[in-house]
Design brief:
The chain is an alpha/beta fold. It is built from 21 helices and 20 strands. The protein has 2 domains: about 10-225, 3-Layer(aba) Sandwich (Rossmann fold), CATH 3.40.50; about 250-510, UDP-N-acetylmuramoyl-L-alanine:D-glutamate ligase. It is about 40% helix and about 15% strand.
Length: about 525
């Protein structure tokens, strides 16, 4: 599903260019990087699309180095006996691209891209079942125009007829930094090089399956410019502690979940079930008196207590008992809720997870929240709208700046901020960021965040590191949804109960590396092609 060897950075277009430049300045010829990218891609195409290659391959080549990659791929496939035609949409314009074109031309056929006469008398789409998009790469922005725009228009109907589309670096028409999609052809697989680009994660539907290939950037791929790291299964497996053979319920830790206002008992119950399925030792549901009966009936494994009415109640029911407190699921947003949260945070000085209404009650009052957290290990888990309410930021701005928008909040509150979404960005107070892209649309449902809260609370209790706990829990939460997705291509008909049922399998992740040259692979969440 999501596996990796070396850690992979998530970068902007400029950051990707900086890594290429660093490798070139260190002595790696730019053309060598192009040749490695093309050769690795051709090898992966032969492996993954072997059933389509007998019908030939149609390659669309643009003017820049992305087009140069396309010429390398075309020559490599042709050299292995595959019939390859290249539609040179715009003539090669860079020295490296022109050099690779010259090497490839003797081995391939050439075609125009607009459905007219080709140099060999044929036309695009002449029986090929595979198209390779090498027109525009990471450095492009804005809507494709003129010849490239017309070429894209020609690819779309081919894909509708069942032709598979492979994109080099990023699909033409997708902005590598913002993820904006400009009338682009949707790729079934996107091969990218050395790093993931932000646009890949934001425009997942346009990119299909995303495969990061090693092209020899080496240490330069990890250029220390603050670009976030990608969470992978191997990374999670190395950090989540094993449950010892001599473990007992105390060593597996105790989690108190505060929430469950009148009529909202389901949220803390979901959080408790996710915590149990994540290996916690004990759970206590601290809910309103109106919700006590529902909590006891639905969660007989968990202890229960009514909302504390005094500091003495907090000391007795929470502070003396819990290793971690998760506050927010089904809490409600009235004045009573704020008083309750303040009472619990004053009386319990240990690690906390704040979700949902425990965040909403501090809307535009970040200073009060920061004072209550007092520098303790803490995780805030807002979705974009909750983040916007808390910080006074518009939702559109939160989404447009999702990779960096949480840093001021994390620094001010000294809490880890887990900004939910696709992708989810987990930001530490020190500025380190981890990105998780394991989720599916199944998680876009009420209660999904409650499951995550129970999982984060469990790992925070067992690991003590709020940043790693939040990143690991987020990845496993998404992986459980992916396991549901794998059993049925659409989220329709599945529920969060199915996600909970797959948590035991989702936690059973092993530290292993993908085969070379694959560094990381993300599944296609939208495809119905199985």
């Amino acid at each position: 599903m999501l596996e990796s060897g070396p850690l992979v950075r998530v970068v902007t277009s400029a950051e990707a260019t900086a890594r290429d430049r660093a490798a070139i300045d260190a002595g790696v010829p730019s053309r060598a990087l192009m040749q490695r990218a093309g050769a690795a891609t051709a090898s992966e195409i032969a492996l993954r699309f072997h059933d389509r290659l007998n019908s030939g391959v149609l390659v669309y080549a643009g003017p820049g180095n992305n087009g140069g990659d396309a010429w390398v791929v075309a020559r490599a496939l042709a050299a292995s006996g595959i019939r390859v035609r290249v539609a040179e949409v715009v003539p090669a314009a860079t020295p490296d691209a022109r050099a690779e074109r010259a090497l490839a031309v003797p081995f391939i056929e050439r075609a125009t891209h607009g459905g007219g006469e080709s140099l060999d008398g044929g036309s695009p789409g002449r029986g090929e079942r595979l198209v390779i998009d090498g027109m525009l790469g990471t450095g492009s922005s804005g809507a494709p125009r003129d010849e490239i725009g017309r070429a894209l228009a020609g690819i779309r109907p081919m894909r509708e007829r069942g032709v598979a589309v492979v994109a080099l670096d990023i699909p033409t028409g997708v902005d590598a930094t913002t993820g904006q999609v400009h009338v682009g052809a949707r790729a079934d697989v996107t091969f990218t090089y050395g790093t993931l680009k932000r646009g890949h994660l934001i425009a997942r539907a346009a990119c299909g399956r995303i495969v990061v290939l090693d092209i020899g950037l080496g240490a330069h791929a990890e250029l220390d410019d603050g670009a976030p790291w990608m969470v992978s299964g191997s990374w999670v497996a190395r950090r989540v502690p094993d449950i010892r053979v001599d473990a007992h319920k105390g060593s597996r830790k105790k989690l108190a979940i505060v929430g469950g206002g009148d009529g909202m008992s389901g949220a803390p119950i979901l959080a408790a079930r996710a915590a149990w399925h994540s290996g916690v030792g004990m759970v206590k549901l601290v809910v309103s008196r109106e919700s006590l009966d529902a909590a006891r009936r639905s969660e007989p494994r968990s202890l229960t207590a009514a909302w504390p009415a005094s500091e003495a109640d907090v000391e007795r029911d929470i502070a003396r008992w819990a290793d971690v407190v998760a506050i927010g699921p089904g809490l409600g947003a009235g004045g009573e809720a704020r008083e309750l949260v303040e009472r619990v945070l004053h009386g319990f000085g240990g690690p906390v997870v704040l979700d949902a209404d425990a965040i909403n009650i501090f809307s535009s009052d970040v200073n009060a929240l920061a004072k209550l957290l007092k520098g303790r290990p803490a995780v805030l888990t807002p979705h974009p709208m909750e983040f916007g309410r808390l910080t006074g930021t518009g939702v559109d701005e939160v989404l447009a700046r999702r990779f960096e928008v949480a840093l001021p909040l994390a620094k001010h509150t000294q809490a880890v901020v887990l900004l939910k979404g696709q992708p989810t960005i987990v930001t530490s107070p020190g500025g380190q960021r981890w990105v998780s892209a394991s989720g599916t649309p199944l998680l876009a449902a009420a209660g999904s965040g409650d499951l995550l809260t129970g999982m984060v609370g469990t790992l925070l209790a067992q690991m003590g590191d709020p940043h790693a706990a939040a990143a690991c829990a987020t990845w496993v939460h998404g992986r459980a949804a992916w396991l549901v997705h794998r059993d049925g291509s659409s989220p329709r008909g599945w529920t969060l109960d199915d996600v909970i049922a797959r948590l035991p399998r989702a936690w059973a992740v092993r530290a292993r590396h993908s085969r070379y040259p694959v560094l990381l692979e993300l599944p296609d969440l939208a495809s119905r092609r199985r």
